[in-house]
Design goal:
Blueprint (H helix, E strand, L loop, with lengths): L1 H11 L9 H30 L9 H32 L7 H6 L1 H40 L7 H15 L18 H7 L2 H8 L13 H11 L14 E3 L15 E7 L8 H7 L8 H7 L3 E7 L5 H10 L22 H7 L3 E6 L8 H7 L4 E3 L1 H8 L11 H14 L4 E6 L22 H26 L5 E7 L17 E2 L1 E4 L6 E8 L3 H8 L5 E3 L14 E6 L2 E6 L2 E5 L4 E6 L12 H23 L7 H5 L1
């Protein structure tokens, strides 16, 4: 039935898979077999194991009858979901997933939609189930007549490992998830490999039915385009986040010039450990970041940059797509990848770049190997391959040392076809804050804060070595560098204010970019459009962020997530909300001329802009309208 459903999906919506050749279709069906086996093994494991018990009662008519009809119930549920998923795919262009929470929360409404639009299809499926029930009953009668003894004791020992492997989709490493369907880097191939039951099972645990409707979509679009995009008209009303590069520094390559791009995603770097930022605020220096501070004099330092969330997956998603990870919705690697999105690596590949993704944790950590492939990165390295490349052992706990990661990244960039995009995600400044033997520790390891500071000092040294190597190799002057933290470390978190919980360092260095300091609000969502502008890419892009280098209105803001709390930070004000009510609001004390409490009208306006952003992103993800399909995008 699962194989038949995949064939029907392909036949019913051929335009969604038009870019796949025969080999691509075969590969998608192959991955689909593994995915089908995984969800079927989950559903049928209790039935099969119960029928294989080596006891006399397990051979009885009643026992086998109960479990046999439970197996039929699984078959019926699977057919109903597969049929509904095929119909849903035609409406939204992807498989059903976390939105099924709305069905549970309001079944009357959802059944009404099904009945109005698909009553004939539903009647046909129910008729099929009646026919299958008749056949199943005959099979059950045949089974009851032939079975006389329980299964042998060794059958469980044989079957249990097979089910274990089938459920995991592999023997070792992280179990498969929805993002693994996209390992080829093709979205359409991933759609063909997935099925509705698997997608639901892997998306629902991370989804909650939070309210995302606060105004009409027209008002939400108008608000976002006015306050985030400077009032520019929509490229396509169906895809209101879609923009095309035109004019300015992003008008495509000049005189044949092609700029490399390196994004350094710095694990758990806090905004208040960097002396270049501390001195700007009037705080005493800590002496931890001499290399970052020197680099800050060569680029534009953004003093009020904010992380989109509090986990690495949130920061990575923001940098790769220019979108936030919203509360109650699945994150990257657990279902959100079913939506068509603008990915940094895919954009670079479209411009003729070679693309490389390196990160210091294990290669299957957060399924980043599949995430990297989906995001357009052709070459991927994790802890294991970095250890092989450098010949040196990793940290005692779970990851590569930063100097090994950055040394491997440097060698990849030197050997790479130019121009290249490289993303390197560091590790050492994560708990437990390790420092290699022989590296100086400016502070005693007597508190967690001091251990964290020492790890920052070590990581800063590795950063200095990397940039020295880049200069010596000659690609420094031809490369756009973005240095940004993935999130705050969490050290001393309880004593931080709402804004400080997201404050991170951000530095951009690029050919021809005059050094300076920018005190306006920026966020990780702005990294992708900034890179597109500085690298002079001309292709389409759909994201919530805007280039950090563009002058914008004071109502430009940063959208930050803290569990189920959404924070919007603007130049002079901020608001925290849980999508039901406003929790906090205040004036940013660092915004000159605006101390004290926030006037209610100002708080209302900031809240409105925040809710417009949340609603629009949630709706576009839900309806798969962030980025058009490839054929539409080409037009």
């Amino acid at each position: 039935m699962f194989l038949l459903a995949r064939v029907v999906l392909y036949a019913a919506w051929p335009d969604s898979f038009a870019d796949l050749d025969g080999a691509g279709i075969a590969a998608a069906f192959g991955r689909g077999f593994v995915i089908d086996a995984s969800i079927l093994a989950v559903a049928l494991a209790p039935v099969v194991l119960a029928l294989c018990l080596p006891f006399g009662f397990a051979a009885g008519r009643t026992w086998r009858g109960v479990w046999g009809w439970l197996a039929f119930a699984v078959l019926c549920a699977g057919i109903l979901v597969l049929a509904g998923d095929i119909a849903y795919f035609g409406m939204v262009g992807r498989h059903v997933g976390p939105e099924l929470v709305a069905f549970v929360d309001d079944p009357h409404l959802m059944w009404g939609i099904v009945w109005e639009s698909y009553r004939l299809t539903l009647a046909g499926v129910l008729l099929l189930l009646l026919v299958l029930a008749w056949l199943w009953r005959r099979l059950m009668a045949w089974d009851a007549a032939r079975v006389g003894a329980p299964a042998p004791a060794w059958s469980l020992a044989l079957i249990a490992p097979l089910f274990f492997v089938a459920i995991r989709g592999n023997v070792t490493g992280k179990p498969i998830g929805t993002v693994d369907a996209f390992r080829s880097g093709s979205v359409s191939s991933g759609y063909l490999a997935l099925n509705g039951p698997f997608s639901i099972a892997h998306s629902i645990p991370n989804a909650k039915n939070l309210r995302f409707e606060f105004m009409s979509e027209e008002l939400a679009v108008a608000s976002v385009r006015e306050h985030s995009f400077g009032g520019s008209p929509a490229e396509d009303p169906q895809f209101p986040l879609l923009r095309r590069r035109a004019g300015g520094q992003g008008a495509g390559p000049r005189d044949g010039e092609r700029r490399n791009v390196v994004v350094l995603l710095l694990e758990s770097w806090d905004g208040d450990v960097v002396d270049a930022l501390r001195l700007r605020r009037g705080d005493a220096p800590l002496g931890l970041t001499p290399n970052f501070d020197r680099l800050a004099g060569q680029g534009v330092l953004f003093t009020r940059c904010y992380a989109a969330g509090q986990r690495s997956t949130h920061g990575l998603f923001a940098v790769l797509t220019g979108l936030p990870s919203l509360p109650g919705m699945p994150y990257l690697g657990s279902g959100i990848e079913q939506s068509r999105l603008s990915y940094l690596g895919q954009m670079a590949k479209a411009e003729g770049y070679s693309t490389h993704f390196l990160q210091g944790s294990t290669e299957r950590s957060f399924r980043l190997d599949s995430v990297a492939a989906l995001a357009g990165f052709e070459h991927y390295m994790g802890k294991e391959s970095i250890e092989r490349a450098t010949g040196r052992p990793p940290m005692a706990s779970w990851g590569s040392w930063d100097h090994d990661l950055l040394e491997a990244a440097h060698q990849v960039f030197v050997d790479s076809q130019k121009p290249f995009l490289g993303l390197a995600f560091t590790t050492s400044t994560h708990l437990p804050f390790q420092v290699p033997e022989g590296h100086g520790r400016p502070y005693a390891d007597d508190t967690e804060e001091h251990r964290y500071w020492n790890s920052i000092h070590y990581a800063d040294g590795a950063l200095g070595q990397f940039f020295a190597s880049a200069r010596e190799a000659g690609y420094y002057d031809e490369t756009v560098f973005v240095l940004v933290s993935d999130h705050r470390s969490g050290v001393g978190f309880a004593r931080l204010g709402a804004l400080e919980k997201h404050h991170i360092p951000c530095l951009v260095i690029a050919p021809g970019l005059a050094p300076g300091v920018e005190d306006g609000v920026r966020s990780q969502l702005d990294v992708m459009p900034t890179v597109a502008e500085l690298a002079r890419w001309s292709g389409p892009m759909a994201c919530l962020g805007s280039s950090m280098l563009r002058a914008t209105a004071a109502t430009r803001g940063a959208l930050c997530m803290r569990s189920e709390i959404v924070l919007r930070v603007e130049d002079r004000a901020w608001v925290a909300h849980d999508l039901r009510r406003r929790l906090e609001s205040g004036a940013d004390a660092r915004a000159v001329g605006n101390p004290g409490d926030l006037p209610p009208l100002v708080a209302d306006a900031v809240e409105g802009r925040m809710l417009a952003e949340v609603q629009l992103v949630a709706e576009l993800l839900r309806t798969n309208r962030v980025l058009p399909p490839p054929a539409s995008s080409a037009r």
